[in-house]
Design brief:
alpha/beta, FAD/NAD(P)-binding domain, 30% strand, binds flavin-adenine dinucleotide
Length: 398
């Protein structure tokens, strides 16, 4: 059998895999990128991602940042609890033009795919070709259900959230003005989280919707026709903040009316963390076969409530690309010292974010009066916390 040799072989051509492939090829490394064929009937992703400043700089540096109408700056974020709690973040107050950007997913994927196609030193490989590759380093970027990670025997600890995210796009009856809204509410026994993320530039009237709902309610919601779903969204985005009934809470909650919606797609939600992120491979006949390392959702998958999953994956790619691409000449691309440094650094960086997002999700999942009081009081105190609020917002902004 004829083998092809690459310095690095990346399995999985999602946004993290492609970004890493470009970063490494630009360091003049020979990169093989293994693509899985798209299912024949697959429709474009309906989602738009909130990407932070760090991700924006990384993608813009690769000339893969979409045009302004496809990457809308968020100038204000308004968060409303289920009992009068509220907070808001303004980019201007932090001396920034944008808190984050809402990026059309198909547009970003298309730009990365084109860039990979024309990048020298980078070959896009089929699954068959991947079986005939010799490499010093295999990077697994296959997402949360990675088969290669399972083959490597890596444990992936999963905590299911009893929530499913429904994503769609909605048209509003007035411009969103670059505002992103998020509402925490309670329906039945579960906390639910609804987000409207602005699209189409500052004066656009379209929003990307992510609605994390109780798994038991998801089938009923998905069975609704467009008018029925638009009505359900209108209701959920116009719940009156009860407890203090203050005008500040009402102003935070207010969003334009929902006029229409597009098709819906759904994702069950979980917290997933791989125990080991790097190691050595052996081939079927027991010979050494280079090293492996995980990146993106293959290493960690988080609740979308803070829009951080891909931002974390892109930060993995950035660090791994720098460590391997700029390594000292005496170390190979699969050097375990570099991979352990990557694993340690990234695990330490993501731990507080993962714990924070999980904590918020848990706090809003409980329906007891005490939990409700605590979370709404917490939100409003946080709103007045000045430096703490700035610090947390800055971290999320990357
Ligand atoms: C509803 C929702 C909203 C979200 N919103 C945000 C947001 O606003 N901001 C944010 O930062 N994140 C967000 N996320 C998280 C984000 O979607 C993920 O973190 C991101 O997609 C992870 O990228 P990835 O490249 O690691 O994995 P994936 O996107 O899962 O890509 C993996 C790729 O590998 C391929 N593959 C799988 N197995 C194989 C194989 N055996 N061989 C070859 N290829 C293979 C797959 O086909 C796919 O192309 C959201 C998630 C959800 C569910």
């Amino acid at each position: 059998m004829a083998y092809s040799t690459y310095d690095i072989c990346i399995r999985g051509s999602g946004i993290v895999g492609r970004t890493l492939a470009l970063l490494l090829a630009r360091h003049r490394l020979r990169v093989g990128l293994v693509e899985s064929p798209a299912p024949a009937s697959s429709l474009p992703d309906i989602r738009a991602y909130a990407l932070n400043h760090r991700s924006q700089r990384l993608l813009a540096g690769l000339k893969c940042w979409p045009a302004p109408e496809l990457a809308t700056p968020v100038r204000e974020m308004r968060v409303t609890g289920d009992g009068g709690g509220h907070t808001r973040f303004e980019a201007e107050a932090m001396g920034e033009h944008a808190m984050t950007w809402i990026v059309d997913v198909p547009a970003l994927e298309h730009m990365l795919q084109q860039a990979c196609q024309y990048q020298s030193g980078l070959d896009v490989l089929s699954a068959d070709e991947a079986g005939r590759v010799r490499t010093a380093l295999t990077v697994v970027c296959e997402g949360k259900h990675s088969a290669t990670r399972a083959e490597l025997g890596v444990d992936y600890d999963v905590t299911p959230y009893r929530q499913t995210a429904i994503a769609t796009r909605a048209t509003l009856d007035a411009p969103h003005g670059g505002v992103a809204w998020q509402w925490f509410s309670h329906t039945g026994s579960m906390g639910e989280i609804l987000a409207f993320l602005p699209l189409g530039g500052p004066q656009g009237q379209e929003v990307a919707v992510v609605w994390s709902v109780d798994r038991e309610r998801v089938d009923d919601l998905l069975a609704l026709d467009d008018d029925g779903f638009a009505a359900a969204l209108q209701l959920a985005s116009h719940l009156q903040p009860e407890a203090d009934g203050s005008s500040a809470a009402a102003a935070t909650a207010a969003a334009p009316d929902v006029v229409s919606v597009a098709r819906r797609m759904a994702w069950p939600l979980q917290l997933g963390l791989a125990r080991r992120w790097a190691g050595l491979r052996t081939s079927a006949d027991g010979k050494a076969a280079g090293s492996w390392v995980l990146a993106g959702d293959a290493a960690h998958s988080v609740h979308p409530l803070a829009g951080q999953g891909l931002n974390l994956g892109l930060a993995d790619a950035e660090l791994l690309g720098a460590l391997v691409g700029e390594r000292p000449y005496w170390r190979g691309p699969g050097d375990m010292h570099l991979l352990r440094q990557y694993e340690r650094t990234r695990k330490a960086e993501i731990a507080p974010l993962v714990a924070g997002m999980d904590g918020i999700q848990q706090l809003f999942a409980h329906n007891s009066g005490a939990a409700r009081q605590l979370r709404n009081l917490g939100l409003s105190l946080f709103d007045r916390s000045g430096p703490l609020k700035q610090f947390i917002a800055r971290r999320a902004m990357g």
